[in-house]
Design goal:
With 304 residues, this protein is of the alpha/beta class. The chain has a single domain, classed as Aldolase class I (TIM Barrel, Alpha-Beta Barrel). It contains ten helices and ten strands. Strands 1-2-3-4-7-8-9-10 form an eight-stranded parallel barrel, surrounded by seven helices. The chain has a two-stranded antiparallel sheet with strand order 5-6. Helix 2 links the parallel strand 2 and strand 3. The longest helix has 14 residues. The radius of gyration is 18 Å and the shape is globular. It starts with 6 loop residues before the first strand and ends in a 5-residue tail after the last helix.
Amino acid sequence: MSEPAILTCALTGVLTDPARYPVPVTPEEMAAEARRATAAGASVLHLHFRQQAPGRGHLPSWDPEVAAAVTDAVRDACPGALINQTTGVIGPDLDGPIACLTRTRPEIAACNAGSLNYLKTTRDGQWAWPPMLFDNPVSKIEAMLEAMAASGSRPEMECFDLGIVRAVGLFEDVGLLNRAGIEGPPSYNFVMGVASGMPADPDLLPLLLRHGPGADRFEHRDDHTRSWQTTVIGRADVWPVHQRSAELGGHLRTGLEDTFYLPDGQRATSNAALIDALAAFARKAGREIASPDEARALLRIPKS
């Protein structure tokens, strides 16, 4: 029997403008979208937080009270669902993400596992935004892991390229996660479709598995089972990756943070439509959809 597929819904994005796209911003909007997504099969809800002042909803917020209002609303709307909180920030100041982790104590926290030149170009050969470095040196990763351990949050290692995937194994080799207070093996998240990172290509998945969660280096350890999922950003190209991920035993994520397009090319008007489509791909691969309790067991997250 194949392992059930854990479906994660990324409800909203970092900078997506709610005036142009149907992304939720307020606690009430986030809760309503979360309720629809869990009804469609999501057991994990990935949260970003936005500024709440009128006209500022396209900007991120690291105010712990905003984080608490959103997280509490989502938990009230979706009892039992697991919260996966963003922590990504440019620069060395981690006070905001750590304050949000401390205030909300999510079950899972995204830990960006390496640096990336975050780039994109327009059709006329210009930069879509000024070139930036999404900086995640080892010292920053270690500090974030310590904060996750203190908040009781399971780290999900965000990997934007093959080198970052391999680096997670090196973190284990030197005991970085254990020193930070993290118990058990890490979860991998293969982030595909960022223009300057890994492309959304299903043929990459066996290679990533061979050098990541399936690497021979882990065979001598007591528990070498390392869960993994794909985050796929784009349009039509995201769905073949989801299908191959389901076939290879990975867990699956989608949502309005990652794509606005359904498999038939239509625009999605809610997260629920995307999760419905993702669940169909999992079932096509012969897998059931994990309940929140099953997701906790598979990810080794105790009930609070």
